[in-house]
UniProtKB/TrEMBL annotation:
This is Phage protein. One of its GO terms (molecular function) is hydrolase activity, acting on ester bonds. It comes from the Bacteria. It comes from Streptococcus varani. InterPro entries: tRNA_endonuc-like_dom_sf, VRR_NUC. Residues 1-81 form the VRR-NUC domain. Its cofactor is Mg(2+).
Length: 93
């Protein structure tokens, strides 16, 4: 299963829950999470999408820690089966 397939599943699941999930592309700030998740009632999350069993690169881990130090959770998603779990976590924070 490819990362693209998981990412497409995430975008659809967010839309099904009434939210939006834009891709975060930042040429001047590499290593940021792939997707911003905006859900109803002001819920927000940062999601790094990976192919199954892949881990974030060193720079990505550094960026995740930076966001976490600011109080934001960064979710690493590596399977379509975990999409609901990640979105549930975002909705309950």
């Amino acid at each position: 299963m490819r990362e693209k397939y998981i990412e497409q599943g995430l975008v659809k699941a967010v839309k099904d829950r009434g939210g939006i999930c834009p891709k975060w592309v930042s040429p001047s700030f590499a290593g940021v999470p792939d997707r911003l998740v905006f859900l109803p009632k002001g819920k927000f999350g940062l999601v790094e999408v990976k192919a199954p069993h892949e881990k974030p690169r060193k720079l990505q881990v550094s960026r995740h820690k930076m966001f976490e130090s600011l109080g934001f959770e960064v979710y690493v998603l590596d399977s379509v089966e975990k999409i609901g779990e990640v979105l549930d976590a975002i909705e309950t924070t």
